[in-house]
Amino acid sequence: MYYIGIDIGGTNLKAGLVDENYRITATRKQPLQFTSMEQMGDTLAKMAIGLVEENSVPRDQVASVGMGFPGPVDDKRGVVIKTVNIPIRFMPVAEMFHRQWDGVPVHLGNDADCAALGEYYHYEDKNIESLILVTLGTGIGTGIILNGRIHTGINGCAGEGGHIVLVHGGEQCTCGRKGCWERYASANALIRQTMAAMDQSRDSIMWGMVGGDLSRVDGRTAFEAMRKGDAAARAVVDQYLRYLADGLSNFVNIFQPEVIALGGGVSHERDEDLLLPLQRMVLEDCFGREADRHTRLAKAKLGNDAGIIGAALLGLQAQGTEPSGKGAGDIISQAKEQLSAVFGHVDSQAAGEIFSFLKELVQDDALKSEEGMINAIKKGKEKFGVEVDREDAQKLVDTMERLEEIGFSPEYILDKAQGLYQQYGADFVDHMDEVVAGAAKDAAQGAVQGFFANLKESVKNFFSNIFS
């Protein structure tokens, strides 16, 4: 099956065909030309239809269509409440779409939320459950993922982090308030701050960098000049990081998310100039700084694809289905890493004993308590000389539990892994994907056998009732 995601931007419409691994396989892009809501609805439907036709994908192979709009939406009713850059008010998008393509589920989301969802399902650690995406652009866009789902609030308007007030009575914001975070920490804010500093420092090297033309100042100017030793640029960057850290600290203190991902052009600055100082500043300002775990600041990875992928995933969120980005494929990848750490440095005899040891632990539920975990690690070290980190051991247990949730028993996985080890030796982890294929085949065979068994029993009962 495929999923279609459409990202409605300020100047362009971008659509993507997304496969079951949540990778974009084809795209379509066209300029945004808005004349009326009717025209817009017609354009979106034709864009999706054109995408599947160009790529010879039957319509019945599309599970859902999702769209990300720059504003609040009501997904249950299929209505866009309003948008910030297009004159849309209470537009019945789903109804309009179904006039041309009936039957396919249509889901709507805020564009920042969609981007956050895309980043969440492509984040390297598949065990996280919370992520906030902060995109630094014209303003500041934020999307909040809690417990693996978009947090929209009671009315679809949650997550407008750019409009938390940072400076009481500060600069006028386009939202109507004064002192909003995006007036001080967006990419546009950085540009304004850079130009103001240049006006105050006529001897700054930033003037030479832009050829004396303030219109050529961008978000990189101050950072590049700072690296060349310019004092005015250093002051701009320090102040900008302070504003940015203040807002991020507010998010951490409220949500304590596992990850905050930074997107937008500013986020591409070197880690030592942006991420590392921000991490220190945020940690200093946050409650829970003494705890063992802290929110990780990371760079967003998907760029412009995040909105398309996230929009495509809206249908699965609505169904309560967990995308395979968090399912068998990626969980098996985690199991491969963890099993490799355990079996990568032992001989075949020891490997066989370790497999038996692990099966015994699983059968006895010995790993489900903190005490059991500690004892298992201790026994493993004494018995095999293999020292497994407590965190890695917990990850392996978590992975086994997640596999069990999607239909793979730990015993099955360990049996198959042991068979692969006997066949491939220490390289067995590279063949773990075969476990998934084998499980699917076994499940299908079992389903067929069960069907015929039930059919046989039904026929038997049917005739018994007739002739009794």
What does this structure look like?
- The chain is α/β, with parallel strands linked by helices.
- The protein has three domains: 2-117, ATPase, nucleotide binding domain (Nucleotidyltransferase, domain 5), CATH 3.30.420; 124-300, Nucleotidyltransferase, domain 5 (2-Layer Sandwich), CATH 3.30.420; 327-442, no CATH class.
- The protein is 49% helix and 15% strand.
- The chain has 17 helices and 13 strands.
- It has helices at 37-54, 93-98, 111-121, 182-185, 187-200, 206-209, 221-227, 231-255, 275-285, 305-312, 314-319, 328-343, 348-363, 370-384, 390-405, 410-424, 433-467; strands spanning 2-8, 12-18, 24-31, 62-69, 73-74, 79-82, 89-91, 106-110, 131-136, 140-146, 149-150, 259-263, 296-299.
- The strands form three sheets. A five-stranded mixed β-sheet has the order 3-2-1-4-8, with helices on both faces. Strands 11-10-9-12-13 form a five-stranded mixed β-sheet, with helices on both faces.
- Helix 7 (221-227) crosses helix 8.
- The radius of gyration is 27 Å and the shape is globular.
